[in-house]
Design a protein that fits this description.
single chain, 2 helices, 71% helix
């Protein structure tokens, strides 16, 4: 038995950030094109960041009816 030990760590499921990033870019382009004016563009950036929450909210509201 040697004095050194090796451990191995396997990380899986790290692709969610890439999917969210692509969704963010797509949502930003969509909301940016719909905006007219400074504050509308500020709101477009906020919506692009929070779009998953909007989707889940509306999906659950649709399921509840």
């Amino acid at each position: 038995m040697s004095g050194t030990s090796r451990t191995r760590t396997v990380v899986r499921g790290g692709g969610g950030g890439a999917v969210y990033g692509l969704g963010f870019i797509g949502a930003l382009v969509y909301y940016w094109q719909q905006a007219a004016g400074f504050w509308a563009h500020v709101w477009a950036v906020i919506e692009a960041i929070l779009w998953p929450a909007f989707v889940v909210y509306h999906l659950l509201a649709h399921i509840a009816t």
